[in-house]
Each structure stands twice: as C-alpha cells, then as structure tokens.
Amino acid sequence: MSTPWPDLGVLELLVAVAEHGSLSAAVRAAGMAQPNASRSISRLERHPGVTLLHRSTRGSTLTDSGVRVEVHVYNTHDVLDSLREGGCDVGFIEGPRPPRGVNHLTVAHDEMVLVAPRDHPGRGAAPR
C-alpha cells in the first residue's frame, strides 16, 4: 500500500518554512503545534526519500527538490486564486483531495512514477 499524496496544507507548511526561514517561525505564524508540523514535514520527506529542507542552527532553506514542491504549491494557488476571482471558469490541479470552497470533478486518475538517479539512496526500495 502506498503512502497517499500529501494534502495541500502539508505542502503549504513546507513553503511557509521556506518563507519564514525556520519551522518554529512558520508554526508560530500558522498557529500550529511544532511537534505536529515537524512530523508532517518528516513524513513528506520520507515517502519519496528526498530531503526537502536544508536544516541548520540558523534556520531552514529549500533544497532543489523542495523548490520543485514550492513551484507546485504556487501553481496550484495561482489556478485556485484565478478561479475564485473570476479570472477563469475552470482549472486543472493535481492531488487526491480537492481544496475546500470549489466544485470539483475528477477527470482522470493518472499513475505517476517517481524517477531518481541510479545512485539515489532509495534505489533499492521495494515497489509498493
């Protein structure tokens, strides 16, 4: 059984960490509990086996993989904002759960495959 695609809220948390420079600053801004937020980020990184944040005593910054996730989150927000503001009639976004406040229709269930270099640490992981 595979781990489900993370909901938009967890992806937004990753972006907030990058914007605020640390997990503690991001959770303060969001009014979340830090242990829950930390677990969410760890789960997000564990499933594909990639590091999304460079962590140091001075804060956190996105890795290249984290930047790709950030772009996905911003693109999703652009589509939703345009839809809600009347800039478009329909839009396409990815994810298993539609965001609140919009009507939705699932038009396809596509299978995506994670690809990585041959020397990636997760290369020996068994298929799920």
Automatic annotation (TrEMBL):
Residues 6-63 form the HTH lysR-type domain. GO terms for molecular function: DNA-binding transcription factor activity; transcription cis-regulatory region binding. Keywords: DNA-binding, Transcription, Transcription regulation. Pfam families: HTH_1. It comes from the Bacteria. Belongs to the LysR transcriptional regulatory family. This is DNA-binding transcriptional LysR family regulator. It comes from Flexivirga oryzae.
